[in-house]
Write a structure and sequence with these properties.
Chain lengths: 192, 476
């Protein structure tokens, strides 16, 4: 794993500018103790919208789901747009979720959860916030674990009897986990 | 003016591609074809139209819009439906000096554009209208500002309708004092305004391997410029007290996609802004009403619309939009991630694809240049396929991270001419050719469209002896 700018921490410059005539900039004077607008959100208010999940598993809720449960949920909620074999249904805009492993960077590049996604956490996070397309945000945490289990199993990433929960999902190793590098641009150097 | 005469448009053959890709690509061509086809149908009965521009035909456009709206029972008066989007149809007097004009403030107090103007965004026909995008009609653009109603769009879950009185922004995570702000709270902070372009990093994706779309709206229409007004994000970070070890911020929207992107903390402390206004009024719903994160120079997807939450963290969140999407696959099989900066780019908007010059003589070549890394220092124009480059005039104001209008006087001798522009930004970076870019990144990121995102190569147009103008990408 590589670090993205974690060392490039940037703190605000102390916001007091002295003008040539010794006048203090108005904004910085007002700023010295903060403006104090806004209120402190309650823990419940934050929890209600703090739905993100990170690669190390932070944010994963309690609960669990199996491949078998996921299959049933998939057939009910997802199959119309993502297909019986998770191959995608072009007419609905639903993408292929599996396949294409090893194709990235070849003339037949095919990006799917199986072939391209570096973290299983992203699958949980995305399905929770945005799917099913017609009723986003409608699935329960256990159901999202089950759907993740089913998709990862169909992608040959986890076994048929594996159970997904906060602990196991964070440990899933995705086939393309080492597939990403930092932006190297500017990558054409004809500077003048 | 001469009308466009071609009645068929040929697009490259797609049979070799799989169904998903074919559908996507074909859809894009179809949308453009519909947008350009309309004027041809009206050649005879519309002497009023300026034939140099491949505009959407007013009448045929209205008819379909009117039919739909009428069916939905939405029309107060049929007459109104006959105008282009954003306009109302009024009777046209023979001599406007001989009759009184329309009543003052009879428009309800919010103006509309002329019924004779029809420049409009067109939508890329994705299978869902919720996850889709529209292009700015750059061929009709003047100056540097994009009218708010023509600013390009990209939505992943449609356009939410949000009551600003109920909308809040929660800032939390590695913060000493987490905060919840109402819109009224945010508007109390000292404000700032900046004129910045926003460009989708998918702008131009169809042109990576070969010329594909016909018009500059199709090839470059995913960039627009507005004046944005709001609170500097640094003010809010100072208020909440960022903790040691923090390095990233997750920005999250309140749309059906609950769109999320991770933003480096140094950008957040820099020129990032929480914008509530665009071009002097409240931000448009499709641009993020009531609140949008503006990250000058960063790819459009990071400018989170309908902003509801900022979470300060030590690591990036690896959301779907920064892994599955908006990453650039190289031929090595590795993909570049967090490619935020939109690099220097320019395009000639007049003359451009599908226009027709009426004959030899004087034309002012004009276009736009922009760079996510600062100010445009110079724009050069060639009219001989890149053999000689001439310095174009830059029209003031020339602002950092902003569309910059360039102009170059040209006397066309009537012979075929290959025209193109290239720009240099304040870092000295010279806009490369598309070939130069593909040389470093490779072309296998997508079976048809190479690495898909971040194409900023030189764009060329071929002016034919008959005055027709066609996409000549890759030829300069």
């Amino acid at each position: 794993m590589f670090e993205y700018w974690t060392s490039k921490l940037c703190r605000p410059a102390i916001a007091v500018a002295i003008l040539p005539f010794g006048l203090l900039l108005a904004a910085s004077a007002a700023n010295a103790e903060g403006f104090g607008f806004g209120t402190t959100p309650t823990a419940a208010e934050i929890a209600a919208i703090d739905i993100d999940v990170m690669p190390d598993g932070r944010g994963l809720p309690p609960g669990s789901g199996t491949v078998a449960q996921g299959k049933a949920l998939y057939e009910q909620n997802c199959v119309a747009c993502h297909g019986e074999n998770l191959e995608g249904v072009a007419a609905t805009g639903g993408a292929a979720l599996i396949g294409g492993r090893g194709s990235i960077g070849t003339p037949k590049t095919k990006k799917t959860v199986e072939s391209y996604w570096p973290y299983a956490s992203t699958l949980y996070d995305y399905v929770k916030r945005a799917m099913p397309f017609t009723a986003p945000g409608s699935l329960k945490d256990d159901e999202i674990y089950a759907l993740s289990a089913y998709i990862l199993n169909r992608a040959n990433i986890i076994g048929e009897n594996d159970v997904m929960n906060a602990d196991t999902l964070a440990k899933v190793q995705m086939p393309n986990k080492d597939g990403f590098i930092s932006d190297a641009r500017p990558d054409v150097h004809n500077y003048r | 003016m001469t009308m466009r005469t071609k009645d068929t448009l040929d697009y490259p053959d797609l049979t070799e591609f799989d169904e998903n890709i074919r559908d996507t690509v074909q859809g894009m061509a179809d949308a453009e074809r519909r947008a350009i086809a309309a004027p041809t149908q009206e050649t005879e009965d519309c002497p009023c139209k300026d034939g140099m521009f491949p505009q959407q035909d007013r009448r045929s456009f209205l008819l379909s819009a009117a039919a739909g709206a009428a069916a939905a029972g939405l029309l107060p008066k049929v007459a109104h439906a006959e105008a282009p989007a954003g306009a109302f149809e009024f009777p046209v007097p023979d001599d406007p000096t001989k009759v009184q004009g329309r009543l003052t403030n009879d428009d309800g107090g919010y103006g509309s554009r002329s019924q004779f103007e029809s420049a409009a965004r067109w939508r890329f026909p994705t299978k869902t209208k919720e996850s889709s995008w529209t292009m700015t009609p750059l061929a009709d653009s003047q100056g540097i500002i994009t009218p708010s109603g023509l600013h390009f769009e990209r939505h992943h879950g449609g356009i939410p309708t949000i009551d600003p009185d109920k909308h809040t922004l929660i800032v939390h995570g590695m913060a000493d004092k987490p905060k919840k702000y109402t819109m009224a709270d945010l508007k109390r902070f000292p404000s700032t305004s900046r004129i910045n372009f926003i460009e989708c990093s998918g702008n131009g994706l169809t042109e990576f391997k070969a010329p594909y779309l016909k018009t500059v709206q199709g090839t470059h229409g995913l960039t627009s410029t507005s004046e944005w007004t709001g609170v500097p994000l640094s003010t809010i970070l100072s208020e909440v007290g960022v903790q040691d070890g923090a390095a990233w911020i997750l920005a999250e929207g309140a749309d059906a996609a609950v769109m999320t992107r991770s933003v480096p903390l140094d950008k957040a402390w820099g020129d990032a802004m929480l914008a509530y206004a665009q071009n002097g009024e409240a931000i448009r719903p499709e641009q993020g009403y009531p609140l949008r994160l503006v990250l000058p120079g960063y790819e459009g997807n990071t400018h989170i619309k309908w902003l509801r939450r900022l979470e300060i963290s030590d690591k990036p969140f690896m959301t779907r939009e920064e892994t599955s999407k908006y990453t650039d696959v190289l031929d090595t099989g590795k993909a570049r991630q967090f490619s935020f900066d939109m690099e220097a780019k320019s395009v000639i908007t007049f003359p451009s694809g599908e226009m027709k010059l009426p004959g030899a003589g004087f034309y002012e070549i004009t276009g736009l240049a922009w760079s996510g890394r600062g100010t445009i220092r110079q724009v050069e124009v060639t009219t001989d396929g890149g053999k000689t480059w001439n310095i174009a005039a830059l029209q003031a104001p020339v602002l950092p991270i902003c569309h910059t209008r360039f102009r170059f006087p040209w006397r066309w001798d009537g012979n075929p001419a290959l025209i193109a522009s290239r720009c240099i930004d304040e870092t000295g970076y010279v806009q490369p050719t598309i070939a130069d870019i593909n040389k470093v990144r490779g072309v296998n990121g997508h079976p048809k469209f190479a690495s898909i995102y971040h194409l900023n190569g030189i764009m060329a147009w071929q002016v034919g002896a008959d005055g027709s103008v066609a996409n000549a990408a890759h030829q300069v």
